[in-house]
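FIELD: query
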Amino acid sequence: MMNRIWPLLILAAVLCAGITGRIEEVGSGMMNGAAQAVTLSLQLLGGMALWSGLLEVARQSGLTRKLAQGVRPILSRFLTGIGEKGMQAVSMNLIANLLGMGNAATPFGLQAMQRMRSSPKEGENTRLCRSRARFVVLNTASVQIIPTTVLFLRQAAGSKNPAGILPGVWVTTLFSLCTACLALWLIQKGRKG
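FIELD: result
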């Protein structure tokens, strides 16, 4: 769908620029935007490499296993039918999201979904389906304590207080998680009845 929308938007912008006689401004804006995108990508690369490296060190040191054991009592009521490795992937996904590293969270999320897909016992499909739906909600709500990417973006844009948004981020992500969990509960309750 987006593959069709973006070209239409670009074509509409070029047509409007041609009609209004501002085609040169569109061309220079495109070139400036491309240069700024490359500069911003390079600025973000260092921070992303740092946090991704720390997450990998945590995985290899066994910290993820310990974290999975720590969050298991909380998550076991929310996500049922997941094995140890699945819980490790879930915990790493949550940690990456808490640190605002959505890109680093994606591989762990995919790994967790694959672990939830294979069910050794018959009759667990319903629970695993619910667990997958709950995990998707939890992952999509992306509760963040430190929105790393946004902080790097604000710093790169010259913000004097990049961390000034933290209270708003905390309230917003908590509210989005509660709203998503309520919506999921209502949907699952509606399917039962």
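FIELD: remark
Residues 68 and 153 are 31 Å apart (CA to CA).
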